[in-house]
């Protein structure tokens, strides 16, 4: 099963209108003998034909006449008619007819920069094309954002909105973790809850952030591209009708099965847990998030493909609010089970935030009576593609299972130390991939339109910018880890001993942040074409094997720091394998220049971390140490980055500066 006819497939018989003109395909046996309704340039309603930028037919001009076609008779133009000029619609497709993309024409401007050339002669009433072409199918709204050409200003604004809301959600997530540490400490109860927390962690990765999005964003991008080409019916509604009911049923079944098998899951995840009964109760409560997270991920993918980023970026705000509210309101009576109930409530809030926006986008397209039968044909989801993306996401998230399995045999609090360290250390990685969340639909749309060069340039810019941002954050975390943990968590039941253990683990975790970021950027490229690819699954499997082997080897002597080192080594191996396979199996980026570009901010980050660590250790007050260390890291990284000439350095600084101004304005106004 697939989303629709693949590129190069012949149009179906039986009344299918042509995707560009609305007419039926010509009767001729070859493309050369078909009438202009299929092989000629696009015609608007009542207007003249305009040359297509990718058409193989030379565009006519005012000074020259197109050469006659030897296979047909050229109609005599009407000298009494005046040929008006119409602009090319913004949503005109890149490929004129179904078939393999002919590739970019030398000297041709990009899609967003094309301008119409001179008008073509208007065919007379005796023309074969006019005889075969009925009233054209209604075009999509040219003002719709999903059909408008992408601009740097749009990408900047979308990234700013996404990053701002993500920063707010991350800060609220820290408040959530602080509340958990303050109310329940880092002991038996929190260890039991964090085993159950595996369910929402897996569900978020599989259904919202990575897995399902890798399958649905290309699918919706392809449907939007077919809609822009004038396909009969509404491909977007057909996709929703063919996928949403089946996926909702699958989510419900998996959640119910997980609740029933909670004792077996807890025994497999943490066999040495002191209180498995509490973990079983929490797991059964959090199992409801499989359905809610699945629906939230579906809405997020559809809205991002429509270039709507506000609601998807805001979903973790009500999610964290629900958890925090439940812990403080029900913690006295329910204990740590209140946090599990907050997870279930927060999942429902994530769906509620996005549903109005998605329904509004689906209602915009009105289907005529002639297209009702075509719109009713549901498009099934590509099962091989869904299988590969879910297996990849499952393998990536399985590193958490390995960590908790190995840590369950360590003293009480080990799982909590790993959890708190990972949550703080991943903040730079989360922020650095915000741009990729915005540009992933753009890459998928470029590949759907056959523009590989545009997709390659976008991926290379994303790698440079994301690398700079995450390396700056890595240097700050390595330099200021003790001060950060003390300021964030050391209060209530969280002691100074917990601070020292968590800070040591976090510094080791930070060594794998670059690999985490590169993996997140590169894997989107593998799945952005909407085709199943098993190479990322194999690369992730190699990383999981490395994590398991190194963790089992080091946990006895190094404890939690050995587990964190295994995580960093495994994900770095996966990133290296994904980068090595890009040219032949994905978007053909230039691997050598990308590696040379990443080496520049990497050197700056190493020097900045060393200098920042020395500066942070001078003051005795944690806040003063954090300020001194953070400032030193920023100054050293900026100076060395400029000196080394990193290409992603300037946009990274602009992104950080703009985001800081917006956050300061929001806080101080």
Describe the protein.
With 669 residues, this protein is an all-alpha fold. It is built from 26 helices and no strands. The chain has helices at residues 36-39, 128-132, 152-184, 188-196, 198-209, 211-228, 235-260, 262-269, 276-286, 289-305, 310-313, 316-334, 337-363, 372-376, 383-407, 414-432, 434-448, 452-489, 496-510, 513-527, 535-558, 560-580, 582-585, 591-616, 622-644, 649-668. Helix 3 (152-184) packs across helix 17. It is globular. The two termini are 53 Å apart. 52% of the residues are buried. The model is unreliable at 1-143 and 366-378 (pLDDT under 50).
Short description:
By secondary structure, the protein is an all-alpha fold.
Oligomeric state of the chains in view: single chain
Number of strands: 0
* SSE series: HHHHHHHHHHHHHHHHHHHHHHHHHH
Distance between the termini: 53 Å
Outline the low-pLDDT stretches. Answer: 1-143, 366-378
What structural category characterises the helix and strand content? mainly alpha
Determine the strand fraction and express it as a percent band.
under 5%
Shape: globular
Number of helix segments? 26
Radius of gyration: 28 Å
Question: What share of the residues lie within helices?
Answer: 55-70%
Largest sheet: none
Mean pLDDT: 75
Pfam families: MurJ
Protein name: Lipid II flippase MurJ
Membrane topology: Multi-pass membrane protein
Subcellular location: Cell membrane
């Amino acid at each position: 099963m697939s989303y629709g006819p693949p590129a190069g497939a012949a149009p179906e018989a039986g009344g299918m209108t042509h995707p560009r003109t609305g007419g039926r395909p010509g009767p001729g046996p070859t493309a050369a003998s078909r009438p202009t309704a299929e092989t000629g340039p696009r015609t608007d309603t009542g207007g003249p034909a305009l040359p297509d930028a990718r058409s193989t037919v030379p565009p006519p001009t005012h000074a020259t006449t197109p050469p006659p076609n030897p296979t047909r008779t050229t109609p005599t133009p009407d000298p009494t008619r005046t040929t008006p000029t119409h602009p090319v619609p913004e949503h005109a497709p890149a490929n004129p007819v179904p078939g393999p993309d002919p590739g970019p024409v030398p000297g041709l401007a990009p899609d967003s920069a094309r301008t119409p050339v001179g008008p073509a002669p208007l065919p007379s009433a005796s023309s074969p094309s006019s005889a075969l072409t009925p009233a054209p199918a209604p075009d999509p709204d040219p003002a719709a954002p999903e059909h408008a050409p992408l601009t740097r200003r749009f990408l900047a604004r979308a990234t700013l909105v996404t990053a701002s809301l993500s920063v707010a959600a991350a800060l609220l997530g820290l408040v959530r973790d602080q509340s958990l540490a303050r109310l329940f400490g880092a002991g038996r109860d929190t260890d039991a809850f964090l085993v159950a927390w595996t369910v929402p962690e897996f569900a978020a990765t599989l259904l919202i952030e990575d897995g399902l999005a890798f399958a649905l964003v290309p699918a919706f991008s392809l449907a939007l591209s077919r809609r822009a080409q004038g396909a009969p019916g509404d491909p977007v509604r057909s996709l929703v009708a063919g996928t949403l009911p089946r996926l909702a049923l699958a989510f419900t079944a998996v959640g119910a099965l997980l609740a029933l098998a909670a004792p077996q899951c807890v025994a497999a995840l943490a066999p040495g847990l002191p209180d498995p009964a509490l973990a079983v109760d929490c797991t059964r409560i959090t199992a409801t998030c499989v359905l809610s997270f699945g629906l939230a991920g579906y809405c997020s993918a559809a809205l991002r493909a429509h270039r709507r980023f506000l609601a998807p970026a805001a979903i973790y705000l009500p999610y964290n609010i629900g958890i925090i509210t439940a812990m403080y309101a029900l913690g006295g009576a329910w204990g740590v089970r209140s946090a599990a109930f907050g997870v279930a409530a927060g999942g429902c809030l994530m769906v509620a935030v996005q549903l109005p926006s998605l329904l509004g986008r689906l209602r915009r397209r009105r289907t005529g009576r002639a297209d009702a039968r075509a719109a009713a044909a549901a498009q099934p989801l590509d099962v091989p593609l869904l299988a590969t993306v879910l297996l990849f996401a499952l393998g990536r998230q399985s590193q958490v299972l390995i960590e908790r399995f190995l840590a369950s045999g360590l003293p009480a609090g080990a799982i909590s130390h790993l959890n708190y360290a990972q949550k703080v250390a991943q903040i730079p990685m989360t922020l650095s991939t915000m741009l990729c969340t915005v540009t992933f639909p753009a890459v998928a749309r470029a590949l759907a339109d056959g523009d590989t060069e545009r997709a390659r340039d976008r991926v290379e810019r994303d790698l440079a910018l994301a690398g700079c941002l995450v390396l700056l954050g890595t240097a700050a975390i390595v330099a200021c880890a003790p001060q950060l943990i003390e300021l964030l968590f050391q209060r209530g039941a969280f002691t100074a001993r917990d601070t020292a253990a968590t800070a040591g683990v976090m510094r080791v975790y930070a060594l794998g942040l670059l690999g985490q970021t590169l993996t997140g950027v590169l894997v989107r490229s593998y799945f952005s074409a909407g085709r199943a690819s098993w190479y990322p699954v194999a690369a992730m499997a190699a990383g999981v094997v490395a994590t398991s082997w190194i963790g089992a080897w080091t946990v006895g002597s190094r404890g939690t720091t050995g587990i964190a080192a295994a995580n960093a080594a495994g994900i770095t191996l996966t990133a290296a394998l994904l980068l090595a396979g890009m040219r032949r199996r994905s978007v053909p980026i230039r691997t050598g220049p990308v590696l040379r570009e990443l080496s520049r901010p990497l050197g700056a980050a190493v020097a900045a971390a060393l200098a920042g660590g020395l500066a942070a250790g001078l003051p005795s007050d944690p806040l003063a140490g954090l300020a001194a260390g953070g400032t030193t890291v920023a100054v050293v990284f900026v100076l060395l980055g400029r000196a080394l000439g990193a290409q992603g350095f300037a946009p990274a600084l602009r992104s950080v500066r703009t985001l800081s101004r917006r956050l300061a304005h929001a806080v101080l106004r």
